[in-house]
Design brief:
about 260 residues, 3 strands, mainly alpha, three-stranded antiparallel beta sheet, 10 helices
């Protein structure tokens, strides 16, 4: 059985999303995120959610990967939704138990806030799944290039971003390997109380940190051997294609329309 790709990992496909320029994808990600937070009405968030679902399907990433990425923040999002929807002073429009009630208006407001966060995570995953680390780092370097005149080490920032993205699937693979090794030794992570489970997960986190530091040391040695830190390499920023410009203009017009009419 093929397992879902690690969240944030590049998925090699031949799709229009993969062929789209990384600078356009990065600009549209920022535009859609700003629109969702500035004009987070139900119609706008509904259309953005349909767009996110279509992009996940078109990227080849798969719904399972998106669900795995949202799993760590599910508890926080559920708590935020409950904190907005529940009323404890008896003034709720829907009575639940004693003074505890439910406010539909606050429920909608909390749901909109949760949808904004989910959209931001999913769209960022779509960008990382359809863009290689090199393309994304070059796009960031291109976007930050005006700040280079102010002394910002643009090339170093782009390199850090590229290395961080590259280490996401490495972390997931090492975590799965260590968990499988501990289970083979008889460790049961789903049994016992909370304190017992935390101690058992300690047998995973400690070797995971050691392995990741070992990877970092080898990467540092490789970069030193290749004389990283010398003069900045030349980045060939090719001009945007006609299709890229059309997609960028269409996305900006849609975001502007949502801000004005949403």
């Amino acid at each position: 059985m093929m397992r879902a790709a690690a969240p944030g990992a590049y998925v090699e496909r031949e799709t229009p999303l993969h062929r789209l320029d990384a600078r356009v994808k990065l600009a549209l990600l920022l535009a859609v995120s700003a629109t969702a937070f500035a004009r987070g009405t139900v119609p706008v968030l509904g259309l953005a959610s349909l767009l996110a679902v279509a992009l996940v399907a078109a990227s080849g990433m798969g719904a399972a990967t998106a669900a795995r990425a949202l799993r760590p923040c599910a508890v926080v999002l559920a708590f935020a939704l409950a904190a907005n929807a529940l009323v404890l002073d008896g003034s709720g429009e829907v009575d639940l138990a004693g003074p505890v009630g439910l406010s539909p208006d606050r429920l909608v407001r909390g749901a909109c806030a949760v949808v904004r966060v989910v959209l931001l995570v999913v769209l960022a995953l779509v960008v990382s799944a359809t863009t290689t680390e090199t393309e994304l780092s070059d796009a960031v370097a291109w976007a930050l290039s005006p700040l280079g005149r102010l002394g910002l080490p643009v090339a170093d920032v782009a390199t850090v971003l590229s290395v961080s993205l590259r280490f996401i699937p490495v972390c997931v693979a090492e975590l799965d390997r260590i968990v499988a090794a501990q289970r083979a030794r008889g460790t049961r992570f789903d049994e016992g109380g909370a304190v017992t489970r935390v101690r058992r997960w300690g047998s995973v986190l400690v070797p995971l940190v050691v392995v990741l530091f070992s990877h970092a040391d080898r990467l540092a040695d490789a970069m030193r051997d290749r004389c990283y830190g010398g003069p900045c390499c030349t980045r060939l920023a090719r001009p945007l294609r006609t299709a890229d410009v059309c997609v960028l203009l269409l996305g900006c017009v849609a975001c502007l329309g949502a801000l004005l009419l949403g």
